[in-house]
Amino acid sequence: MPIIKKRAWDLPESAVTPEHVFLNRRQILAGLGFAAASGVAGGSLFSRAAHAADDPSAELYPVARNDAYQVERAITPEKVSSTYNNFYEFGSHKQIASAAQALKIRPWEVKIDGLCDNPQTIGIDDLLSKVQLEERVYRHRCVEAWAMTVPWSGFPLADLVKLAGPQAGAKYLRMETFFDPEVASGQRASWNPWPYVEGLTIEEATNELAFMATGIYGKPLAKQFGAPLRLAVPWKYGFKSIKSIVRFTFTAERPVSFWEKIQAAEYGFWANVNPEVPHPRWSQATERLLATDERVPTRLYNGYGEQVAHLYKDLEGEALFM
Ligand SMILES: Nc1nc2c(c(=O)[nH]1)N[C@H]1C(S)=C(S)[C@@H](COP(=O)(O)O)O[C@H]1N2
Ligand SMILES: [Mo]
Protein backbone atom coordinates (compact mmCIF):
# COMPACT_ATOMS: atom_id res chain seq x y z
CA MET A 1 0.00 0.00 0.00
CA PRO A 2 1.69 3.24 -1.10
CA ILE A 3 2.15 5.89 1.52
CA ILE A 4 1.02 9.25 0.16
CA LYS A 5 3.30 11.99 1.34
CA LYS A 6 5.50 14.62 -0.19
CA ARG A 7 8.59 12.93 -1.57
CA ALA A 8 11.28 14.21 -3.89
CA TRP A 9 9.38 13.46 -7.09
CA ASP A 10 6.44 15.57 -5.90
CA LEU A 11 8.52 18.71 -6.22
CA PRO A 12 10.24 20.57 -9.04
CA GLU A 13 13.97 20.47 -8.84
CA SER A 14 14.18 24.05 -7.61
CA ALA A 15 12.29 22.96 -4.51
CA VAL A 16 14.11 19.64 -4.14
CA THR A 17 17.53 21.23 -4.20
CA PRO A 18 17.52 24.56 -2.44
CA GLU A 19 20.30 26.99 -3.14
CA HIS A 20 22.27 26.24 0.01
CA VAL A 21 22.58 22.63 -1.11
CA PHE A 22 24.01 23.78 -4.45
CA LEU A 23 26.49 25.88 -2.56
CA ASN A 24 27.44 22.97 -0.34
CA ARG A 25 27.85 20.78 -3.40
CA ARG A 26 30.26 23.27 -4.93
CA GLN A 27 32.25 23.31 -1.75
CA ILE A 28 32.29 19.51 -1.68
CA LEU A 29 33.42 19.42 -5.32
CA ALA A 30 36.15 21.90 -4.63
CA GLY A 31 37.26 19.63 -1.80
CA LEU A 32 37.23 16.55 -4.04
CA GLY A 33 39.20 18.37 -6.71
CA PHE A 34 41.79 19.27 -4.16
CA ALA A 35 41.86 15.68 -2.91
CA ALA A 36 42.34 14.35 -6.45
CA ALA A 37 45.16 16.76 -7.13
CA SER A 38 46.90 15.74 -3.96
CA GLY A 39 46.39 12.03 -4.53
CA VAL A 40 43.94 11.52 -1.67
CA ALA A 41 41.31 8.78 -2.09
CA GLY A 42 38.32 11.15 -2.28
CA GLY A 43 39.16 12.08 -5.85
CA SER A 44 39.12 8.49 -7.10
CA LEU A 45 35.48 8.71 -8.20
CA PHE A 46 36.72 10.58 -11.28
CA SER A 47 39.87 8.65 -12.08
CA ARG A 48 40.43 5.94 -14.66
CA ALA A 49 41.85 3.65 -11.97
CA ALA A 50 38.55 3.67 -10.11
CA HIS A 51 36.90 1.78 -12.98
CA ALA A 52 39.70 -0.59 -13.89
CA ALA A 53 39.75 -2.37 -10.55
CA ASP A 54 36.43 -4.17 -10.99
CA ASP A 55 35.64 -3.42 -14.63
CA PRO A 56 37.36 -5.72 -17.12
CA SER A 57 35.89 -3.70 -20.01
CA ALA A 58 38.12 -0.68 -19.23
CA GLU A 59 40.50 -1.58 -22.06
CA LEU A 60 37.70 -1.14 -24.64
CA TYR A 61 37.65 2.62 -24.11
CA PRO A 62 37.88 5.27 -25.42
CA VAL A 63 35.95 4.51 -28.62
CA ALA A 64 35.62 6.56 -31.81
CA ARG A 65 33.05 9.36 -31.73
CA ASN A 66 30.16 9.20 -34.20
CA ASP A 67 30.03 12.78 -35.48
CA ALA A 68 26.51 12.37 -36.84
CA TYR A 69 25.27 13.49 -33.41
CA GLN A 70 26.36 17.08 -32.91
CA VAL A 71 25.31 19.09 -29.90
CA GLU A 72 25.88 22.84 -29.90
CA ARG A 73 26.18 22.88 -26.11
CA ALA A 74 29.35 22.46 -24.07
CA ILE A 75 29.95 19.02 -22.57
CA THR A 76 29.08 18.99 -18.88
CA PRO A 77 32.22 18.47 -16.79
CA GLU A 78 32.50 14.92 -15.45
CA LYS A 79 33.03 16.12 -11.91
CA VAL A 80 29.60 17.78 -12.01
CA SER A 81 27.56 15.09 -13.83
CA SER A 82 29.09 12.26 -11.80
CA THR A 83 28.19 13.85 -8.48
CA TYR A 84 24.63 14.92 -9.31
CA ASN A 85 22.61 11.82 -10.16
CA ASN A 86 19.14 10.37 -10.00
CA PHE A 87 19.40 6.71 -8.98
CA TYR A 88 16.64 6.08 -6.44
CA GLU A 89 18.00 2.62 -5.70
CA PHE A 90 20.71 4.44 -3.74
CA GLY A 91 18.68 7.31 -2.30
CA SER A 92 16.07 9.89 -3.29
CA HIS A 93 18.55 12.75 -3.56
CA LYS A 94 21.34 13.69 -5.97
CA GLN A 95 24.40 12.76 -3.90
CA ILE A 96 24.27 8.97 -4.39
CA ALA A 97 27.65 8.58 -6.11
CA SER A 98 29.51 7.10 -3.17
CA ALA A 99 26.60 4.82 -2.11
CA ALA A 100 26.41 3.51 -5.69
CA GLN A 101 29.99 2.24 -5.50
CA ALA A 102 28.58 -0.73 -3.54
CA LEU A 103 27.01 -2.06 -6.75
CA LYS A 104 28.80 -5.21 -7.98
CA ILE A 105 29.04 -5.03 -11.77
CA ARG A 106 30.71 -8.41 -12.40
CA PRO A 107 29.45 -10.99 -12.94
CA TRP A 108 26.55 -9.17 -14.66
CA GLU A 109 24.05 -11.23 -16.58
CA VAL A 110 21.46 -9.80 -18.91
CA LYS A 111 18.34 -11.82 -19.60
CA ILE A 112 16.58 -11.41 -22.94
CA ASP A 113 13.17 -13.06 -23.02
CA GLY A 114 9.53 -12.83 -24.07
CA LEU A 115 8.35 -12.73 -27.68
CA CYS A 116 11.67 -13.22 -29.45
CA ASP A 117 13.34 -16.01 -31.44
CA ASN A 118 16.64 -15.95 -29.54
CA PRO A 119 15.87 -15.70 -25.83
CA GLN A 120 19.10 -15.90 -23.87
CA THR A 121 21.01 -14.95 -20.78
CA ILE A 122 24.25 -13.27 -21.72
CA GLY A 123 27.12 -11.94 -19.63
CA ILE A 124 27.87 -8.27 -20.13
CA ASP A 125 31.39 -8.91 -21.47
CA ASP A 126 30.00 -11.42 -23.97
CA LEU A 127 27.46 -8.86 -25.07
CA LEU A 128 30.19 -6.22 -25.41
CA SER A 129 32.14 -8.57 -27.69
CA LYS A 130 29.14 -8.88 -30.04
CA VAL A 131 28.57 -5.17 -30.65
CA GLN A 132 30.44 -2.25 -32.17
CA LEU A 133 31.02 0.51 -29.62
CA GLU A 134 30.92 4.18 -30.57
CA GLU A 135 30.74 7.50 -28.76
CA ARG A 136 27.78 9.87 -29.07
CA VAL A 137 27.36 13.27 -27.50
CA TYR A 138 23.74 13.62 -26.41
CA ARG A 139 21.68 16.13 -24.49
CA HIS A 140 19.91 14.75 -21.40
CA ARG A 141 16.82 16.48 -20.00
CA CYS A 142 15.43 15.47 -16.62
CA VAL A 143 11.71 15.98 -16.01
CA GLU A 144 12.80 18.10 -13.00
CA ALA A 145 14.10 20.69 -15.53
CA TRP A 146 17.86 20.27 -15.25
CA ALA A 147 19.90 19.24 -18.27
CA MET A 148 23.36 18.01 -19.13
CA THR A 149 25.35 17.15 -22.26
CA VAL A 150 27.54 14.06 -22.08
CA PRO A 151 29.58 11.77 -24.34
CA TRP A 152 28.13 8.28 -23.96
CA SER A 153 29.94 5.24 -25.30
CA GLY A 154 27.83 2.28 -26.31
CA PHE A 155 25.89 0.74 -29.16
CA PRO A 156 22.47 1.20 -30.80
CA LEU A 157 19.65 -0.50 -28.92
CA ALA A 158 18.55 -1.68 -32.38
CA ASP A 159 21.58 -4.04 -32.37
CA LEU A 160 20.36 -5.74 -29.19
CA VAL A 161 16.85 -6.00 -30.65
CA LYS A 162 18.31 -7.66 -33.74
CA LEU A 163 20.28 -10.10 -31.59
CA ALA A 164 17.04 -11.10 -29.87
CA GLY A 165 14.98 -11.45 -33.05
CA PRO A 166 11.60 -10.07 -31.96
CA GLN A 167 8.50 -11.93 -33.12
CA ALA A 168 5.59 -10.28 -34.93
CA GLY A 169 3.54 -10.07 -31.73
CA ALA A 170 6.21 -8.03 -29.91
CA LYS A 171 5.01 -4.44 -29.73
CA TYR A 172 7.05 -3.22 -26.76
CA LEU A 173 10.42 -3.69 -25.15
CA ARG A 174 10.28 -3.80 -21.36
CA MET A 175 13.50 -3.15 -19.41
CA GLU A 176 14.24 -3.87 -15.79
CA THR A 177 16.95 -2.74 -13.34
CA PHE A 178 18.69 -5.07 -10.85
CA PHE A 179 16.97 -5.78 -7.53
CA ASP A 180 19.30 -6.17 -4.54
CA PRO A 181 18.10 -4.38 -1.41
CA GLU A 182 21.21 -5.47 0.50
CA VAL A 183 23.35 -3.37 -1.81
CA ALA A 184 20.84 -0.68 -2.75
CA SER A 185 19.39 0.87 0.39
CA GLY A 186 16.67 2.66 -1.60
CA GLN A 187 15.21 -0.71 -2.51
CA ARG A 188 14.52 -1.37 1.17
CA ALA A 189 11.80 1.28 0.82
CA SER A 190 9.19 -1.35 0.18
CA TRP A 191 6.41 1.13 -0.74
CA ASN A 192 8.16 1.75 -4.07
CA PRO A 193 7.42 -0.66 -6.96
CA TRP A 194 10.95 -2.13 -7.30
CA PRO A 195 12.60 -3.12 -9.50
CA TYR A 196 12.73 0.00 -11.67
CA VAL A 197 11.00 -0.73 -14.98
CA GLU A 198 10.84 1.20 -18.22
CA GLY A 199 9.55 0.52 -21.69
CA LEU A 200 9.62 1.64 -25.30
CA THR A 201 7.68 0.66 -28.38
CA ILE A 202 9.67 -1.51 -30.79
CA GLU A 203 9.68 1.44 -33.22
CA GLU A 204 11.24 3.64 -30.52
CA ALA A 205 13.70 0.95 -29.47
CA THR A 206 14.93 0.56 -33.04
CA ASN A 207 15.06 4.30 -33.75
CA GLU A 208 18.64 5.31 -34.54
CA LEU A 209 18.83 7.54 -31.44
CA ALA A 210 17.99 4.84 -28.88
CA PHE A 211 21.37 3.99 -27.42
CA MET A 212 22.65 1.41 -24.92
CA ALA A 213 25.31 3.23 -22.95
CA THR A 214 28.16 1.16 -21.55
CA GLY A 215 30.61 4.01 -21.06
CA ILE A 216 30.84 7.76 -20.58
CA TYR A 217 33.70 10.27 -20.86
CA GLY A 218 35.82 7.70 -22.68
CA LYS A 219 35.67 5.15 -19.86
CA PRO A 220 33.30 2.42 -18.69
CA LEU A 221 30.20 3.84 -17.01
CA ALA A 222 30.83 4.86 -13.44
CA LYS A 223 28.35 3.07 -11.20
CA GLN A 224 26.30 6.17 -10.42
CA PHE A 225 25.54 6.53 -14.16
CA GLY A 226 23.97 3.05 -14.21
CA ALA A 227 26.86 0.67 -14.92
CA PRO A 228 27.32 -1.61 -16.69
CA LEU A 229 24.41 -1.04 -19.09
CA ARG A 230 21.94 1.88 -19.22
CA LEU A 231 19.60 3.32 -21.77
CA ALA A 232 19.97 6.79 -23.35
CA VAL A 233 16.84 8.03 -25.15
CA PRO A 234 17.63 11.75 -25.41
CA TRP A 235 14.29 12.93 -26.82
CA LYS A 236 12.48 11.73 -23.70
CA TYR A 237 12.58 12.89 -20.10
CA GLY A 238 15.50 11.38 -18.22
CA PHE A 239 13.47 8.90 -16.17
CA LYS A 240 12.98 6.82 -19.35
CA SER A 241 16.76 6.24 -19.50
CA ILE A 242 16.78 3.25 -17.17
CA LYS A 243 20.04 2.33 -15.41
CA SER A 244 21.88 -0.91 -14.59
CA ILE A 245 19.64 -3.10 -16.75
CA VAL A 246 19.41 -6.87 -16.12
CA ARG A 247 16.46 -7.82 -18.28
CA PHE A 248 14.91 -7.04 -21.67
CA THR A 249 11.48 -8.54 -22.38
CA PHE A 250 9.66 -8.39 -25.71
CA THR A 251 5.96 -8.11 -25.05
CA ALA A 252 2.56 -7.40 -26.59
CA GLU A 253 1.46 -5.29 -23.60
CA ARG A 254 2.58 -1.77 -22.85
CA PRO A 255 4.82 -1.94 -19.78
CA VAL A 256 3.93 0.21 -16.79
CA SER A 257 7.02 2.04 -15.67
CA PHE A 258 8.27 2.67 -12.13
CA TRP A 259 7.20 6.34 -12.11
CA GLU A 260 3.88 5.61 -13.80
CA LYS A 261 3.06 3.15 -11.03
CA ILE A 262 3.93 5.75 -8.42
CA GLN A 263 2.17 8.74 -9.99
CA ALA A 264 0.37 7.97 -13.27
CA ALA A 265 -1.19 11.44 -13.43
CA GLU A 266 2.29 12.98 -13.76
CA TYR A 267 4.57 10.41 -15.41
CA GLY A 268 3.24 8.61 -18.45
CA PHE A 269 4.52 6.05 -20.90
CA TRP A 270 5.67 8.43 -23.67
CA ALA A 271 7.43 11.18 -21.71
CA ASN A 272 8.62 13.07 -24.78
CA VAL A 273 10.19 16.45 -24.00
CA ASN A 274 7.94 19.41 -24.84
CA PRO A 275 8.36 23.00 -23.59
CA GLU A 276 4.64 23.71 -24.12
CA VAL A 277 3.29 20.93 -21.94
CA PRO A 278 3.94 21.75 -18.29
CA HIS A 279 4.37 19.10 -15.67
CA PRO A 280 1.17 19.31 -13.57
CA ARG A 281 3.14 21.19 -10.91
CA TRP A 282 5.82 23.15 -12.81
CA SER A 283 6.67 24.63 -16.19
CA GLN A 284 8.83 22.77 -18.72
CA ALA A 285 9.46 25.91 -20.80
CA THR A 286 13.09 26.28 -19.71
CA GLU A 287 15.80 24.09 -18.25
CA ARG A 288 18.90 24.63 -16.10
CA LEU A 289 22.23 23.45 -17.48
CA LEU A 290 24.33 21.62 -14.92
CA ALA A 291 27.67 23.27 -14.11
CA THR A 292 26.83 26.78 -15.41
CA ASP A 293 23.31 27.01 -13.96
CA GLU A 294 22.36 28.84 -17.18
CA ARG A 295 18.61 28.81 -17.99
CA VAL A 296 17.87 27.96 -21.62
CA PRO A 297 14.66 27.31 -23.54
CA THR A 298 13.49 23.70 -23.64
CA ARG A 299 13.20 22.25 -27.15
CA LEU A 300 10.48 19.98 -28.52
CA TYR A 301 11.75 16.38 -28.39
CA ASN A 302 14.78 17.90 -26.65
CA GLY A 303 15.98 19.03 -30.09
CA TYR A 304 15.73 15.58 -31.71
CA GLY A 305 12.48 16.07 -33.66
CA GLU A 306 14.16 15.39 -36.97
CA GLN A 307 14.92 11.82 -35.89
CA VAL A 308 11.79 11.01 -33.89
CA ALA A 309 8.79 13.25 -34.65
CA HIS A 310 7.52 10.78 -37.28
CA LEU A 311 7.10 8.11 -34.59
CA TYR A 312 4.21 10.06 -33.07
CA LYS A 313 2.34 11.25 -36.17
CA ASP A 314 -0.70 9.01 -35.72
CA LEU A 315 -0.91 9.14 -31.94
CA GLU A 316 -2.80 12.40 -31.36
CA GLY A 317 -5.06 10.79 -28.76
CA GLU A 318 -2.10 9.78 -26.56
CA ALA A 319 -0.51 11.77 -23.73
CA LEU A 320 2.77 12.03 -25.63
CA PHE A 321 4.40 14.69 -23.47
CA MET A 322 4.08 13.53 -19.87
N1 LIG B 1 17.21 2.34 -12.30
C1 LIG B 1 17.08 3.67 -12.35
N2 LIG B 1 17.25 4.30 -13.52
C2 LIG B 1 17.12 5.65 -13.58
C3 LIG B 1 16.76 6.42 -12.44
C4 LIG B 1 16.60 5.72 -11.21
O1 LIG B 1 16.29 6.29 -10.16
N3 LIG B 1 16.78 4.35 -11.20
N4 LIG B 1 16.57 7.78 -12.54
C5 LIG B 1 16.25 8.30 -13.88
C6 LIG B 1 16.26 9.76 -13.95
S1 LIG B 1 14.95 10.57 -13.26
C7 LIG B 1 17.23 10.44 -14.62
S2 LIG B 1 17.15 12.12 -14.85
C8 LIG B 1 18.45 9.74 -15.10
C9 LIG B 1 19.65 10.36 -14.44
O2 LIG B 1 20.82 9.90 -15.02
P1 LIG B 1 22.24 10.40 -14.48
O3 LIG B 1 22.24 10.26 -13.00
O4 LIG B 1 23.23 9.50 -15.15
O5 LIG B 1 22.37 11.83 -14.89
O6 LIG B 1 18.45 8.35 -14.83
C10 LIG B 1 17.18 7.72 -14.94
N5 LIG B 1 17.33 6.28 -14.77
MO1 LIG C 1 15.02 12.65 -14.17
CATH superfamily: Oxidoreductase, molybdopterin-binding domain
The CATH topology is given as Sulfite Oxidase, Chain A, domain 2
User: What is the CA–CA distance across the termini?
Assistant: 24 Å
Report the principal-axis shape.
globular
Tell me the major beta sheet: 7 strands, mixed
From the helix content, strand content and strand pairing, which structural class follows? alpha+beta
Radius of gyration: 19 Å
Briefly say what this structure is:
With 322 residues, the protein is of the alpha+beta class.
Give short descriptive properties of this protein:
322 residues, alpha+beta, Sulfite Oxidase, Chain A, domain 2, 10 helices, 12 strands, 20% strand, globular, disordered N terminus, binds the ligand Nc1nc2c(c(=O)[nH]1)N[C@H]1C(S)=C(S)[C@@H](COP(=O)(O)O)O[C@H]1N2, binds molybdenum atom
Walk me through what this model shows.
With 322 residues, the protein is an alpha+beta fold. It has one domain (13-309): Sulfite Oxidase, Chain A, domain 2, CATH 3.90.420. It is built from 10 helices and 12 strands. Strands 3, 4, 7, 8, 9, 11 and 12 form a 7-stranded mixed sheet that branches. It has a 5-stranded mixed sheet with strand order 2-1-10-5-6. β3 (134-141) and β4 (146-156) form a beta hairpin. The chain starts with 12 loop residues before the first helix and ends in a 14-residue tail after the last helix. The relative contact order is 0.16. The structure holds ligand MTE and molybdenum atom. Residues 86, 142-144, 238-239 line the site of molybdenum atom (MO). Molybdenum atom binds at residues 86, 142-144, 238-239.
